[in-house]
Amino acid sequence: MPEQSPGSRPTLEAVAARAGVSRATASRVVNGGDGVRKPLVDKVLRAVDELGYVPNHAARTLVTRRTGAVAVIIAEPEVRIFSDPFFSQQIRGVSKELTAHDTQLVLLLVEGPGDFGRITRYLSGGHVDGALAFSLHTDDPLPEITRRAGVPTVFGGRPGWTAAPGERAVPYVDADNRGGARVAVQYLRDLGRERIAHIGGPSDQTSAMDRFDGYRDVLVDTDPTLVVEGDFTVESGARAMAELLERRPDLDAVFVANDLMASGALRVLRERGIAVPERVAVVGFDDMDPVAKETDPPLTTVRQDIEGQGRLMARLLLRNLDRTGNGAAPDSVITPTTLVRRASA
User: Is the pTM for the entire model greater than 0.90?
Assistant: First the structure.
């Protein structure tokens, strides 16, 4: 058996010798290949542990034609990503799933239009096996960039575009935004509220439009003076609430398209001495920790499993990477939503 000199890096040959198998067999086991009997697999893995062997990444890539890395692309400025708990929860879910499959997460941020060229070059350079992209806007070039780069992709959120003729639809993971909004607004109606306003998200994102559609499903004859668009930030929720109070001081409820905007709306109501929920009831969307539980009063909201959606996105992508030939692409997934009742409504 070859001896390892002190401080030297264990080799695949040393692993094979320790396990009593050929180098080819050891290579197949280490690189995840098939066709090796379980007793031999166990011997090789035991030798790997005993020697502290770490596979050479470049050599492994040549054998498997996989980099072992996945790009996570977020189409939002850096300041938004690191201030909004939604993104940290979703990235946490992605990271947990990729880690469980020994896959590296590579975070690519889109600060502005100038970043798309850099992302195009990176994806086209063969640095990653696939991509996860979320928070896309309707005019976003990322779908076309990933298609041209030939990188398997899963999107977070229902796409606002349709596949070209002959192309497969790209899989995505989303929450039941419309259904959740419908439940929230009906709940406010059942409380006896008659003038229910809506603070919506940006109209170029499908999640915001789906939640607005859910609002209109219940309030068919929507009064336009009761609707203001925000951008999913605390500040925009505060501005929208102030505008609504100027327009319609008689409003008695607000359905807000995310928890951050709802926290801004609650701040304005509190500053103006408007009792919640006695005079104005407020319902948000997301149920993000720690936002929803720490508002004053604690926020009634629609819960979506944000971290679970991140895990599902990664799972769909890994399944797509593992399929062979022309097998069917993985199906998209719509996750359920539930109303969580707290003190604001």
Answer: no
